[in-house]
Design a protein that fits this description.
The structure holds 2 protein chains of 2 kinds. In chain A, about 40% of the residues lie in helices and about 10% in strands. Chain A is an alpha/beta fold. Chain A has 3 domains: about 220 residues, Rossmann fold, CATH 3.40.50; about 80 residues, Ubiquitin-like (UB roll), CATH 3.10.20; about 90 residues, NADH-ubiquinone oxidoreductase 51kDa subunit, iron-sulphur binding domain (de novo design (two linked rop proteins)). In chain A, helix 7 links the parallel strand 2 and strand 3. The two termini of chain A are about 40 Å apart. Chain B folds into 2 domains: about 70 residues, Arc Repressor Mutant, subunit A; about 70 residues, Glutaredoxin, CATH 3.40.30.10. In chain B, helix 1 packs antiparallel against helix 2 and helix 2 runs antiparallel to helix 3. By secondary structure, chain B is α+β, with helices and mostly antiparallel strands. Chain B has a 4-stranded mixed β-sheet with strand order 4-3-5-6, covered by helices on one side. In chain B, strands 1-2 form a two-stranded antiparallel ribbon. Classes of the chains: A alpha/beta, B alpha+beta. At the A-B interface, strand 3, strand 5, strand 10 and helix 14 of A face helix 2 and helix 5 of B.
C-alpha cells in the first residue's frame, strides 16, 4: 500500500499489505496473517527444489541490479565444504530509496522468513543482516523480532522441527553508503574499512571469510516467503509488461509529488499512472521537470521520457535510464537542476571510499566544477570537462560508485542544457554554495 | 585498572562489568575476533559518547589488532565520533530528495535554535551538535532528522523549537 497513504486501487500489495498495521510486527501477528507458511513449505523441500521454485517465479534482485535470484542461489556450491553464508543487505542508502526501511519497520518477520528460506536454499546455517547505522528504530525492531523468531522456532538449532539449523546475526553499519556494495559490505562485516573488493572471485566462490556467500536485498528476500507459499507460477503471472520482469515491486516516490510514499505495483505498470494517479501528481500550479527513477545513481529522465515509460527493468532502460532500486525522485519546475546535480555529486564525493583514482579525484573534481558554475564563474568548456571526466569515471573502477556519480551529471548536461547555460551566460543569479 | 597511552591521558577501561559481558556475547556470532570490531566500537560509543584515543587502544588490545588498524576503521565510518560532541547529536538529511523539499531551511533552523552557530560545532552550553548528513533513507518523509537514536520524520523549520524542548 502507498504507506503512509491508503492503498490505491492501482496497487497490488503483497509485500506492503501490512504496512501501517502494528499487529503484523510480532511473531504471533505475522503467523496469524499467514506468515512462516512459506518457510515451513521450503523446509519440506530440497535445496534444489527451493531454487527451482524461485527460478520459476522470475524474481530478480530488488537492490538495483535486477539479477535473477534463483540463478544467484544456484551459483552456491552443492556440497557444503566450508561454511556457507547468506548476507541480507539492509544498508538502504541510495538517495530516493526508502522501501526496505518500511519492510523492516512493519513486517520484520516477513524479512526473517525470507532470510531463512534463502539460507535453506543456499545451504547456509548463518545469516548476517547488515542494517545501516542510521536506522536506529528499525534496528531495535529487528533485534526484537529475531529474539521472537528464536522463541517461536523459526530460527535456531532445529527450525520448526526440521532438524535444520539457521541463525541470524544483526550487524549494524556505522555510516558509509559504499557498504551497500556487496563486497564492501562483506569487508565491513569482517571488521574492515568498507572498501569494495575486486571481482572475481565472486562471493559465491569466496565471500565472507573466503567462504561461499550470497548477498540479497531486503525486498528480494521478503518476496521469497510469498513465492514459496503461493508458488513461482503465481508470482510469474504478476506481469503487465515485459515477461522478463515479474512480480510486484515497491516504488519509493519522493520529492515534489502530493503524496510521497511507498507504492507496490505489478511490474510493467505505467510510470505516469504511479506519479499522477497514485501519488497525486505535482503540487498545484507546478509542472513536472525531471524524474530520477531508480535511486540517484541512474540517468535523469525528461517529462517526454516519462510519458509512456513502463515500470519494469526493460521499460526504463528503453527510455534511457534504469529501474535500479525503484527509488523515484520527482522534481517539478521549481527545481534548480544544476544545484541538485551538484548536491548529488557532493554526495558521491563524500561517500567515495577513495581506493580508485577515477572515483576519488573524479567525484570531488565534478563537485568543484558544478559549484563553480553555480557561483557564476562557469565557462562553456566546463561542460565538456564534466563530460570528459564522466567518461573517465565510467566502467573503470572496482565498483560502480563513480559511474553512479557520472550518470546524473551526464544526463543533466545532455537533456537539460538550458539549466547550465543560464548560469554560464550569467542570465541567472549566482547561488551561494555552502560546503 | 587504568592504562596510560601515548597521548598521556588516563583511560578508564570501557570493557568492564556489563559492557564486558556484552562484548563477550558478540564473540560466538563471528568466526574471527576482528569481525567484532564494528559492534565493539558501537559499545564504546554507547558507553562514552565518543571514541577516545584511549578507548581505541583498548579496543585494539581486546581484539588483538593494532591501534593503527583500529584507527583506520574508525575513521572510515562517519557515525563514530573521534572527538566529544554535544549531549544531543543532531543529523539533518540534506541530500537531493530532501534538499528539494526544503532541508537546508531545516538545518538553518536547528543551527539558530540550538545556538550552535555553524555545522559541526557544539553549542556553548554543551547541549547540542548539529551536522548535515547524507541521505538518511527516509526521502518520502522529508525532512528526516536523527537526534541521538530518535528518528524524527517530516521536520519543518516551524517544528524545530518544539522538538528541541524534548532534549535537555
Amino acid at each position: 500500500m502507498g504507506y503512509p497513504h491508503p492503498s490505491h486501487a492501482g496497487e497490488h500489495p503483497v509485500l506492503s499489505k501490512h504496512f501501517g498495521d502494528a499487529g503484523a510486527r510480532t511473531f504471533d501477528g505475522w503467523v496469524k496473517r499467514g506468515g512462516y507458511e512459506g518457510l515451513k513449505k521450503a523446509l519440506g523441500m530440497t535445496r534444489d527444489q527451493v531454487v527451482e521454485e524461485v527460478k520459476a517465479s522470475g524474481l530478480r534482485g530488488r537492490g538495483g541490479a535486477g539479477f535473477p535470484t534463483g540463478m544467484k542461489w544456484s551459483f552456491m556450491p552443492k556440497e557444503v565444504v566450508k561454511p556457507h553464508y547468506l548476507v541480507c543487505n539492509a544498508d538502504e542508502s541510495e538517495p530516493g530509496t526508502f522501501k526496505d526501511r518500511e519492510i523492516i519497520r512493519w513486517t520484520p518477520h516477513q524479512l526473517i522468513e525470507g532470510c531463512a528460506i534463502g539460507a535453506h536454499a543456499i545451504g547456509a546455517e548463518r545469516i548476517y543482516i547488515y542494517i545501516r547505522g542510521e536506522f536506529t528504530h528499525e534496528h531495535r525492531i529487528l533485534l526484537a523480532a529475531v529474539d521472537e523468531a528464536y522463541k517461536g522456532g523459526a530460527l535456531g538449532a532445529n527450525v520448526f522441527g526440521s532438524g535444520r539449523r539457521i541463525d541470524v546475526v544483526v550487524h549494524r553499519g556505522a555510516g558509509a553508503y559504499i557498504c551497500g556494495e556487496e563486497t564492501a559490505m562483506m569487508n565491513s562485516i569482517e571488521g574492515k574499512r568498507g572498501n569494495p573488493r575486486i571481482k572475481p572471485p565472486f562471493p559465491a566462490v569466496a565471500g565472507l571469510w573466503a567462504c561461499p556467500t550470497t548477498i540479497n536485498n531486503v525486498e528480494t528476500l521478503a518476496a521469497a516467503g510469498h513465492i514459496l507459499r503461493q508458488g513461482g507460477a503465481w508470482y510469474k503471472g504478476l506481469c503487465r509488461g515485459n515477461p522478463k520482469s515479474t512480480g510486484t515491486k515497491l516504488f519509493s516516490v519522493c520529492g515534489h509529488v502530493q503524496r510521497p510514499g511507498n507504492y507496490e505495483v505489478v511490474m510493467g505498470t505505467s510510470m505516469k499512472e504511479l506519479i499522477y494517479d497514485m501519488c497525486g501528481g505535482m503540487r498545484p500550479g507546478r509542472t513536472l521537470k525531471a524524474v530520477i527513477p531508480g535511486g540517484s545513481s541512474v540517468p535523469i529522465m525528461t517529462p517526454a521520457e516519462v510519458e509512456d515509460c513502463l515500470l519494469d527493468y526493460e521499460g526504463v532502460v528503453a527510455k534511457g535510464s534504469m529501474l535500479g532500486s525503484g527509488g523515484m525522485i520527482v522534481m517539478d519546475d521549481s527545481t534548480d537542476l544544476v544545484y541538485q546535480v551538484m548536491r548529488l555529486a557532493r554526495f558521491y564525493a563524500h561517500e567515495s571510499c577513495a581506493q580508485c583514482t577515477q572515483c576519488r579525484e573524479g567525484t570531488a573534481w565534478t563537485t568543484r566544477i558544478l559549484e563553480k558554475i553555480l557561483a557564476g564563474k562557469g565557462r562553456r568548456e566546463d561542460l565538456d570537462l564534466l563530460l570528459d571526466l564522466a567518461d573517465n569515471m565510467t566502467g573503470k573502477t572496482i565498483c560502480v560508485l563513480s559511474d553512479s556519480c557520472a550518470a546524473p551529471v551526464v544526463s543533466a548536461i545532455r537533456k537539460f542544457p538550458a539549466e547550465f547555460d543560464a548560469y554560464i551566460s550569467r542570465e541567472k543569479q549566482p547561488v551561494m554554495v555552502t560546503a | 585498572m587504568s592504562t596510560a597511552h601515548a597521548a598521556g591521558e588516563t583511560h578508564q577501561p570501557v570493557f568492564v562489568g556489563p559492557t564486558r559481558a556484552q562484548l563477550e556475547a558478540l564473540f560466538p556470532k563471528y568466526p574471527t575476533k576482528q569481525s567484532v570490531l564494528l559492534p565493539a566500537l558501537w559499545l564504546v560509543q554507547e558507553a562514552r559518547g565518543w571514541i577516545s584515543e584511549g578507548a581505541l587502544h583498548e579496543v585494539a588490545e581486546v581484539l588483538g589488532l593494532t591501534p593503527a588498524y583500529v584507527k583506520g576503521v574508525v575513521t572510515f565510518y562517519t557515525m563514530y565520533h573521534t572527538h566529544p560532541v554535544g549531549r544531543h547529536f543532531i543529523q539533518v538529511c540534506t541530500t537531493s530528495p530532501c534538499n528539494i523539499c526544503g532541508a537546508e531551511e531545516v538545518t538553518k533552523a536547528f543551527l539558530r535554535h540550538t545556538g550552535c552557530g555553524e555545522l559541526g560545532a557544539t553549542s556553548p552550553d554543551g547541549r547540542f551538535t548539529v551536522i548535515e548528513v547524507e541521505c538518511l533513507g527516509a526521502c518520502g518523509f522529508a525532512t528526516p532528522v536523527l537526534i541521538d537514536d530518535d528518528f524524527v520524520e517530516g521536520v519543518t523549520p516551524e517544528r524545530v523549537a518544539g522538538i528541541l524542548q524534548g532534549y535537555k
